[in-house]
């Protein structure tokens, strides 16, 4: 008798080798096109909705057709972020080893929430965390978490800080919540990143808890005012310092801030989204002197380490507080065991998540210590070259001291500044973002991509010279 199998009982299909080979070809063609393609997307919003939209098919579609159609429809709406001429938002490219490892991550499809779901993924995170602590000069016994990015890293670190400062005054926030708890003040600089404020909101501490301190012209916190604030009422306190202001690249005086915090019982957190990577460079390490004295650190790998999105790290000098803020357990979970493997869900807000450690491991191993230092130093050298070239463009004013990879500049007035930027983006030669500083329009450039070359900097400078003449 003939038997008809339901879709649920059909045997698994063969490995779609043709599909994966074609996908790899599409990916390679995209990467090869970066040097000659416009950096900005070319399609409008309406065009993309038309190309990608329409009703969901009733029946199934061949996977190869799906991938080819997707690539063809999306291509005009892709920004060439992996290009060496993309200078926006402190976004790196993807190192070849990291991209390849990220592909394997998708194929392996491991869940490193706890060891039993992905032993290799868990151990890779353990190894990579130790490498990062050594590379960046953080305490060897610091706990850590692989998260989506610096926003979630702040959330993780500040949750540990919240536990720590309230526990010190006898309040168990995990058990009792914040209702009726002692108030927490969070001391920040006026030019902190908005993700710090957002983490404070998410944690229920609230924006009203912020004590905003003045900063100097580059965005560095005024430490004398910090000392005054810390000398005030002895409420539980978190201090958020910054390594790498988003527009200027300026780094707070972390050593002096650590001196001010020492002995007060306050928790010192460092937003090192990209600037903490200066610690990997012997030539730039002095900029973050004293960073190891903090209580927690948040930073990204998808910025200066150039791994694919998304990839952030949270480190904490107080593992007990970190674990208390994050851990979870359930009868059905398989946790711990012989040799005490590391269960990542004890350290992250996530339960199930992507095995981000593979790409970070591959990036670090492919570069080595000297390669990471060279990537950081080369980016900073390109930024200085760009700033020097801009200084010779009529009507252009460089607004910051170029200490890292950020250049902040403007033209004669707001209209000219925005007009020059628009012309450069429309030329396809580079992509940068505008900003507002002290009430005036400006342009910010970030050199973060491993592929950026002298030629890329030259092309971007030529585009600004031409745009300035047109304006």
What is the gist of this entry?
By secondary structure, the chain is α/β, with parallel strands linked by helices.
Describe the secondary-structure layout:
Blueprint lengths: L16 H17 L11 H8 L10 H12 L21 H13 L10 H18 L6 E5 L2 H18 L5 H4 L8 E5 L4 H9 L7 E4 L9 H8 L6 E6 L11 H8 L5 E5 L24 E5 L11 E5 L2 H8 L30 H35 L5 E2 L7 E5 L3 H14 L5 E5 L2 E7 L7 H17 L1
Parallel strand pairs: 2-3, 2-4, 4-5, 5-6
Antiparallel strand pairs: 1-7, 6-7, 8-9, 9-11, 10-11
Helix pairs in contact: 1-3, 4-12, 5-12, 6-8, 6-11, 9-10, 12-14, 13-14
Describe the model.
The protein is built from 14 helices and eleven strands. The chain is an alpha/beta fold and 471 residues long. It has two domains: 17-83, dopa decarboxylase, N-terminal domain, CATH 1.20.1340; 99-363, Type I PLP-dependent aspartate aminotransferase-like (Major domain) (Aspartate Aminotransferase, domain 2), CATH 3.40.640. It has a seven-stranded mixed β-sheet, with helices on both faces. α6 (150-167) crosses α8 (194-202), α12 crosses α14 and α13 (414-427) crosses α14 (454-470). The chain is globular, with a radius of gyration of 24 Å. Keywords: Decarboxylase, Lyase, Pyridoxal phosphate. InterPro entries: Aromatic_deC, PyrdxlP-dep_de-COase, PyrdxlP-dep_Trfase, PyrdxlP-dep_Trfase_major, PyrdxlP-dep_Trfase_small. Pfam families: Pyridoxal_deC. Belongs to the group II decarboxylase family. Its cofactor is pyridoxal 5'-phosphate.
Question: Key features?
Answer:
471 residues; alpha/beta; dopa decarboxylase, N-terminal domain; Aspartate Aminotransferase, domain 2; PyrdxlP-dep_Trfase_small; lyase; Aromatic_deC; pyridoxal phosphate; Pyridoxal phosphate-dependent decarboxylase family protein
């Amino acid at each position: 008798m003939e038997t008809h199998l339901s879709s649920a009982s059909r045997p698994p299909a063969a490995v779609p080798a043709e599909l994966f080979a074609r996908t790899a070809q599409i990916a390679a063609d995209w990467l090869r096109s970066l040097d000659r393609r416009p950096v900005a997307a070319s399609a409008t919003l309406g065009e993309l909705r038309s190309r990608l939209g329409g009703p969901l098919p009733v029946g199934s579609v061949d996977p190869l057709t799906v991938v080819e159609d997707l690539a063809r429809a999306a291509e005009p709406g892709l920004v060439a972020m992996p290009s060496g001429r993309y200078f926006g938002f402190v976004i790196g490219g993807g190192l070849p080893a990291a991209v390849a490892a990220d592909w394997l991550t998708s194929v392996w499809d491991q869940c490193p929430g706890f060891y039993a779901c992905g032993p290799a993924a868990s151990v890779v995170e353990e190894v990579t965390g130790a490498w990062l602590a050594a590379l960046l000069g953080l305490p060897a016994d610091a706990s850590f978490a692989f998260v989506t990015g610096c926003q979630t890293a702040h959330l993780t670190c500040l949750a540990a800080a919240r536990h720590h400062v309230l526990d010190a005054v006898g309040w168990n926030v995990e058990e009792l919540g914040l209702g009726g708890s002692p108030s927490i003040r969070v001391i920040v600089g006026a030019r902190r990143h908005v993700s710090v404020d957002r983490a404070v909101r998410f944690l229920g501490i609230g924006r009203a808890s912020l004590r905003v301190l003045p900063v100097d012209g580059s965005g560095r916190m005024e430490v004398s005012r910090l000392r005054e604030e810390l000398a005030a009422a002895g409420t539980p306190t978190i201090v958020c310092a910054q390594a790498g202001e988003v527009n200027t690249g300026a780094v707070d005086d972390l050593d002096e801030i650590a001196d001010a915090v020492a002995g007060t019982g306050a928790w010192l957190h460092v937003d090192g989204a990209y600037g903490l990577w200066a610690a990997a460079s012997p030539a730039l390490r002095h900029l973050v002197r004293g960073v190891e004295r903090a209580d927690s650190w948040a930073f990204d790998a998808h910025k200066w380490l150039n791994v694919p999105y998304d990839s952030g790290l949270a480190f904490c000098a107080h593992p007990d507080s970190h674990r208390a803020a994050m851990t979870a357990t359930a009868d059905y979970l398989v946790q711990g065991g012989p040799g005490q493997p590391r269960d990542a869900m004890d350290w992250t807000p996530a339960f199930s998540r992507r095995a981000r450690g593979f790409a970070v491991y591959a990036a670090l191993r492919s570069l080595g210590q000297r390669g990471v230092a060279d990537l950081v130093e080369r980016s900073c050298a390109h930024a200085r070259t760009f700033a020097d070239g801009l200084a010779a463009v009529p009507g252009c004013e460089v607004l910051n001291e170029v200490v890292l990879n950020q250049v902040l500049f403007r033209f004669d007035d707001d209209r000219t500044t925005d007009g020059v930027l628009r012309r450069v983006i429309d030329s396809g030669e580079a992509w940068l973002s505008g900003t507002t500083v002290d009430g005036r329009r400006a342009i910010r450039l970030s050199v973060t991509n491993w592929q950026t070359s002298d030629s890329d900097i030259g092309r971007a400078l030529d585009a600004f010279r031409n745009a300035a003449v047109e304006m």
